[in-house]
Amino acid sequence: MSGATADPRLAAARAVPKKRMRLSWSDPALRGIVWQVVIVALVVLGIWWLVSNTRHNLEVRRIATGFGFLWREAGLPIGEHLIDYSPTDTYFRALLVGVLNTLRVAIVGIVLATILGTLIGVARLSKNWLLAKLSAVYVEVLRDLPLLLQLLFWYAMLQGLPGPRQALHPAEGVYLSNRGLKLPGLVWEPAHGWALAAFLIGLVATYFYRRSALAKQMADGRPRPVWPAALGFLVVLPVAVWAALGAPWTVDWPALRGFNIQGGLTLSPEYFALLLGLVLYTAAFIAEIVRSGIMAVQLGQWEAAQALGLRPGQVLRRIVLPQALRVIIPPMTSQYLNLTKNSSLAVAIGYQDIVSIANTTLNQTGQAIEGVAIIMGVYLTISLSISLFMNWYNKRIALVER
Hints:
The protein has helices at 8-14, 28-60, 91-124, 129-144, 147-159, 190-220, 227-244, 269-296, 299-307, 312-342, 354-365, 368-396, and strands at 168-171, 174-177, 180-183, 185-186, 251-252, 255-257, 260-262, 265-267. By secondary structure, the protein is of the alpha+beta class. The protein folds into three domains: 29-62; 91-167 and 267-396, Orthogonal Bundle (MetI-like fold), CATH 1.10.3720; 191-242. The protein has a four-stranded antiparallel sheet. It has a two-stranded antiparallel sheet with strand order 4-5. The protein is globular and about 75 Å long. The model has no long low-confidence stretch (mean pLDDT 86).
């Protein structure tokens, strides 16, 4: 009966008795504890030996340790830097320039590789025979060639282009020569910075407004449109801030002056070759991930969407890809990490990223351990940040069982 109480003797009979650990090697519990203690002791002993051996060798060779060298004058020329830098600055600032150069490649490369890889992955499933075969050839060729070979190939191709006077001019304000790629650039002023800050604030406000709208819809069942608020936060607010500060808008157009092309935005041959190689190589892997994710969606989903009268493009965007993301995101995270770590091959074509600058620094100062530790710390921080964000996003789109 529902009101009856359970017999305590029956509850005790059903309880699994706990086994007492015996001081015998035949006891698996004791063996497990002993092996764990032994392994931990060996790991601690190995670390202690490495540290003591390193300290002894440094003392014998009279090599100073520590990170005090970071505040000494670097005397290191760096061709590309996103922040102000001169050889009279410290090693710390030089390494900071290297970190920013690495992030410049990684972030832009991830965005472009994702777009290109998604397009190629969808094209591989196209009913157009030629488009599908060309996409398959791209994937198989680019994926099977070593990345370093591809970087050297693209760098040699850019070095073989004509000089600035005979530069390729495919569009207005676009020049491609052995000096790199020249593009029109916006003259950045404080008003643009404030407008960007307003856009970021609007992005956060849109996120919280959307959450509030969804919560109210779950409570009363009435849908509330989010796009008017998003339009106000993401468009009207930044434009209003930009207009209130004078609405500056000056485009710097590159043009041939003398023996070189002056003005505009410059992508050096080293950066352009590195970015091109990383994007094309990683996009081949992303294309296969996207293709497998789309194929993992059940055929019934396609048929049900088509039965509702949706066009193929709508089916892909609204029905298939949102479900495929649950399969795509985990392996896509690995490709983002691979692209970031593969950017360290920049040293082979002369692009000064964190690896190149840290190697020069440790050669000048002799602080090899500190230099390697800095490189490891930078890549570990970037990789963990990417992993945390992608894991958070993967959890956001995961199916919730009820």
